[in-house]
Write a structure and sequence with these properties.
single chain, 335 residues, alpha/beta, Aspartate Aminotransferase, domain 2, Aspartate Aminotransferase, domain 1, 2 domains, seven-stranded mixed sheet, five-stranded mixed sheet, 12 strands, 16% strand
């Protein structure tokens, strides 16, 4: 469908003979948002909900699925922002335990939170072991996208996306998504989204619809270029470590991912990471990931001692691989 022909920015819709129709107030739902959710459902399976950001989706999942005295088992190297959010919720009685997601989740958890692959360490979870756990399983598949991984098909109960990243793909839309395996969970989380007001705008939904049409083409190109750059970085004398599931490859990633390993990687330089990130000419020194333009940054500024001082996160875009490599080589020489 043409997202621009169908965008509806209304905040209210008239009742029909006094009866509420499919839409009444935009905080509940709106036609453009529902169209984007339907497109996500066709990619992931399940029942989708669109949010104003990835963190709005994460907040709704934590608040809707847990409560005081409950425990979330989260992958120890999952996105730091979610960990920070959980720590804020601890004063409301939520408990967290971190674990190595390449193995089974710990006993006693009420929700298992995985990331496939993790950002920025690129580990991959054992989805089979997680599905065998009695607690519901949520997989943040932002970096994999449904092009490479469909977690609901591997026993997950929920899939989370920061749609700002690969699903949006152009650094011009802020959005998030949750996809639920069960309709009852979808309906419950929809009620919470309505109460808290975290719905995505019609414009964001339209931009997402535009981007989903090219998702496969973008992810396949980004995956191929990322693998090539990872191989070249691994052979560079000034690079200590390269993290990318395609190097090896990672046995868990190889088991579950299809058609590539995504456009995200990280590597540690032996010298000054800040000098490297600020010396690129083609690669944008900026945060976020998943767009058509390559970005790179030192994660130490955001995550502190959680990451090595030399760690650089590289999100590969659609530029020519040789042009990106030449830019990386000249920047690393300044480390």
């Amino acid at each position: 469908m043409d997202p621009w022909a169908s965008i509806d920015r209304s905040t209210i819709w008239q009742y029909a003979g006094g009866d509420v129709g499919d839409y009444s107030y935009a905080r509940d739902a709106h036609p453009t948002g529902r169209a984007a959710e339907a497109a996500l459902e066709s990619l992931e399976g399940g029942h989708a909900l669109l949010f104003a950001s990835g963190m709005a989706a994460a907040s709704t999942a934590l608040l809707g699925l847990l409560g005081p005295g409950k425990t979330v088992a989260i992958a120890s190297d999952a996105y730091y922002g979610v960990g920070a959010l959980i720590r804020r919720l601890e004063r409301w009685g939520l408990t967290r335990v971190e674990f190595d997601q390449t193995g089974p989740p710990p006993d006693g958890a009420d929700l298992v939170w995985l990331e496939a692959p993790s950002n920025p360490f690129l580990t991959f979870p054992d989805l089979e072991a997680a599905a065998a756990h009695p607690a519901p399983v949520l997989v943040d598949a932002t970096a994999a996208t449904p092009v490479l991984l469909r977690p609901l098909e591997h026993g997950a109960d929920f899939v989370l996306h920061s749609a700002t990243k690969y699903l949006g793909g152009h650094h011009d839309v802020l959005a998030g998504a949750l996809v639920c395996a069960r309709e009852a969970d979808h309906d419950s989380l929809l009620e919470l989204r309505t109460s808290t007001g975290g719905v995505a705008s019609p414009d964001a939904a339209a931009l997402l619809l535009r981007s989903l049409e090219t998702l496969r083409l973008r992810v396949e190109r980004q995956s191929a270029t990322a693998l090539e750059l990872a191989r070249r970085l691994a052979a560079h004398a000034a690079v200590e470590v390269v993290r990318y599931p395609g190097l090896g490859p990672d046995p868990l990633a190889a088991r579950y991912m299809e058609g590539g390993f995504g456009g995200l990687l990280s590597f540690d330089v032996r010298g000054d990471a800040r000098a490297v990130e600020s010396s690129t000419l083609v690669i944008a020194n900026a945060t976020s990931l998943g767009g058509v333009r390559t970005t790179m940054e030192s994660r130490r500024r955001w995550e502190g001692d959680r990451v090595p001082e030399g760690l650089l996160r590289l999100s590969v875009g659609l530029e020519d691989a040789d042009a990106l490599w030449a830019d990386l080589e000249q920047a690393i020489a300044r480390a």
